[in-house]
Amino acid sequence: MRIPDRPSAFPSDTARDKYRRLPIPPAYTDEQVRELSVPVQVSLGDCSALHDAQAVAARLAEITPSWRVEIVPGTGHALPVETPDWTAYSTAALTDPALAAAALTRPDALEDFLTTRLATAQQAGVLASDRDPRTEVATLLALANGLTASVLGRQRGYEAAIAITDYHLDRLFGAAATLGPPPG
After folding, report:
1. pLDDT, tens digit, for every residue of 118-172?
2. Which residues contact 149 (CB under 8 A, 6 or more apart)?
């Protein structure tokens, strides 16, 4: 079994060595997998060193078409460690039908809403005319997702995340758009 040398997946040599001593789980036959009678979601990291995510997803679609299989971009085999924010959201969506339905039917709803707001701000002269509202929104949402992961992973505190967000909002709108406390 090949173990990836990924610092994000293994915070120390001790953790890596401990992982190597874990028993290898049994392989299930296609028939055993088909016999599972509960809803199943499989989340695969597209950069896993332990499996080919596309091949696993294709195989599962072939033998268990009712399973939900998702490939998470930019992640390895240790999804909960590498993307705790995505893992938390995905887990919540498994138990909250409304959240799951919204994510599946309108994944771009927030982006669409904010793009409309930025286009309105641009028409009012608050946002520079050379900015593309949708690209700016996609950038801000990616920033928010990354900062969420870095705060949850204890890479930085929430104060630093707010300062980084303020920095980007200042570049977009000017100094009046910060999230921090008002002066004085």
Report:
1. 999 889 888 889 999 999 999 998 898 888 878 777 888 888 988 998 888 888 8
2. 83, 84, 85, 86
CB atoms within 10 A of CB 41: 13
Backbone angles phi, psi at 109, to 5 degrees: -60, -45
CA pair distance 148, 143, nearest whole angstrom: 8
Residues making up the chain, counted from first to last: 184
Q: pTM score > 0.85 for this model?
A: no
Does residue 133 contact residue 127 with C-beta atoms inside 8 Å? yes
- Cβ atoms of 91 and 99 within 8 Å: the answer is no
Tokens of 83: 């993307």
Q: Which residue has the tokens 């890596």?
A: 16
Partners of 72 in beta bridges = 45
Tell me which residue has tokens 């799951």.
Answer: 100
pLDDT digits (tens, 9 = 90+) for 4-22: 433 344 444 554 455 556 6
